[in-house]
Design a protein that fits this description.
Length: 244
């Protein structure tokens, strides 16, 4: 397996994605699934996956968040980041996602189909609370903070190992054969659902129904397939072949 960037950059890349989600959650008030969807749809995730040095090493977490929002065409107010010293559950979620992406060489879009953000946050919070309860009350604050950070690394490592143990390289191609394929093609082109609707002339609600499997794209009108193929820069026949 050939990685897109050297392992020496992995720690910085993981920290940037972790801080992006921390900042997005606590300062910009985006929930993590929504921010990750913007991350993939904006095309920033593809640059991350391909090892764009400006993205993985050249930006802080809040700068990465700004890049995502600007490329998504969303208005936002720049606010001073307030990172927690012992790092948040959201931070470790982003940190772990970057580690998974590097280890598997999969796209974030595919990873998010098998990675439950809510389960991660819930499990982390529960185990962190149990860990804190186990610490002596006399533990100095600085030492306590370092121990909590060490706990975060350990938790992330456990989740990474669990994900890798279940990772199937064939899962990516299988995902492309599911009704989620349209979403994956859209994300690869850096388009939102509304942008694809505008580019193809197909109602956004119809696109949503195709992506959610409520409608079968293989039974779509020919002009719909042609329009989608043109907007997504792919052969319509190839697009249909990924649907069952």
């Amino acid at each position: 397996m050939t990685h897109a960037y050297d392992e020496a950059c992995l720690r910085r890349a993981s920290d940037s994605l972790g801080r992006m989600l921390d900042y997005s959650s606590y300062s910009l008030h985006y929930d993590i699934p929504a921010m990750m969807d913007l991350f993939t749809a904006s095309g920033v995730s593809a640059r991350f996956e391909h090892g764009d040095i400006r993205i993985i090493c050249g930006m802080s977490g809040f700068e990465l968040a700004y890049e995502v929002l600007e490329r998504s065409g969303l208005a936002f107010e720049r606010t001073k980041p307030r990172y927690t010293k012992s790092l948040s559950a959201e931070y470790w979620c982003g940190f772990t996602l970057a580690q998974i992406q590097w280890m598997t060489c999969s796209s974030f879009a595919l990873i998010m189909q098998r990675f439950s953000v809510q389960d991660f946050l819930s499990e982390y919070s529960k185990k962190r609370l149990s860990f804190l309860d186990s610490l002596p009350l006399s533990t100095p604050e600085a030492e306590r903070r370092e121990m909590i950070i060490s706990f975060g690394y350990s938790f992330s490592s456990d989740i990474l190992s669990e994900f890798l143990s279940d990772h199937d390289p064939e899962a990516d191609s299988e995902a492309l054969r599911s009704h989620n394929a349209l979403r994956l093609y859209r994300i690869r082109c850096g388009l939102s659902q509304s942008s694809l609707a505008k580019a193809s002339g197909i109602p956004v609600r119809t696109i949503q129904q195709y992506e959610q499997g409520q409608k079968d794209l293989s039974r779509a009108r020919a002009e719909y397939l042609i329009s989608l193929g043109r907007a997504l820069n792919c052969d319509p026949a190839k697009l249909i072949s990924h649907f069952k």
